[in-house]
Design goal:
Keywords: Cell membrane, Membrane, Transmembrane, Transmembrane helix. It comes from Sphingomonas corticis. The protein is an alpha+beta fold. The chain has two domains: about 230 residues, no CATH class; about 90 residues, no CATH class. The protein is built from nine helices and seven strands; from the N terminus they run H-H-H-H-E-E-E-E-E-E-E-H-H-H-H-H. Strands 1, 2, 3, 4, 5, 6 and 7 form a seven-stranded antiparallel sheet that branches. It is elongated.
Length: about 375
Amino acid sequence: MSSFFPSRTVALYMARLFLVRTFAILAGLVLVLQALDLLSESGKILSVASNGDAQVWRYVSLRAPQIVARFLPFSVLLGTILTLITMNQNSEIIALKAGGLSAHQVLAPLVVASLGVAGLSFVFNDAVVAPGTATLNAWQKVNYQPLPLDRGDRSNVWVRADNNLIEADQIRGRGNAAVLGGVTVYERSADGSLTGLIYGRQGRREGEGWRIAPVQRFDVASGAVARSPSMIVGRGVTPDQFTLASVDADGLSFLALRAAIGDLKDAGRPTKALEGALWHKLSGPLSAVLMPLLGAVAAFGIARSGQLFVRAVIGMALGFTYFVADNFALAMGNLGAYPPFLAAWAPFLLFLLIGEAVLLRTEE
């Protein structure tokens, strides 16, 4: 390790430059993009009579982490290129290579710092972004109306029971402890025509069905509305049909998503797309480690040669091509064209080899 980092001072200096520039770029991107996003959403939020400034700030607190998670790898790429260009222009890279450091040794402090960024990104995504995404999705589905249930709950789930359709606005808990909120039963005849609507504020598992209360039933034929304290609906509908009907990978942490995939497998449901998303929760943050390697082309070459700008453009092109390939592979995985592991890891491994090949071919 001491031979790979021959100078602790230089390593700390480069890591500090890299981290300061990366997070400065990230802060600027988040500020601009959040302002633009808020311009389009604030009108929808404030159109609800009960909403005000507090709800606008709540939206910002839920949306900003998503922007941070999405653009952190971009910021690492731009921070890498800016750091290396600056050092190249100041002849610091030339001094390091003249001192006997290889190209890999020059990049080593940035790679180690990016490993720390990747670990921070994974924890941030798991602890902040996932629950915030679940809450924001549920809030948007009710058009920014007050949410009746806590964060992280599933929303807007449809289940078929014989000829009837059951809609649950919100669901919390799992198994027999699942609680339904805003339950609407669409009663249909054998030919599919609507015969009645049953609405219950809350539903709980009871026997082979679900007891909802209080109940209002609208009869389509007569137009009459009947009320009762409670009613059993959805006989034969199991809890997993509600809790697993809508699994949002972005709204679940790594462990929660893995548990949901296990439940789906036990229920005999397809899980390939979710398995790809599970692997991507690891490969996504780890993409930060690739950025110093892909942007390394900007570090080398003589600044006075006039090719520094071209090298920076090549570094950015390699980085952005990776993001395109990553999104394409993930989309193919969701369609079932790629195996889950390949969809999540193939772009990472491919561009790791490309970055190494470019570095070895041009500098080593």
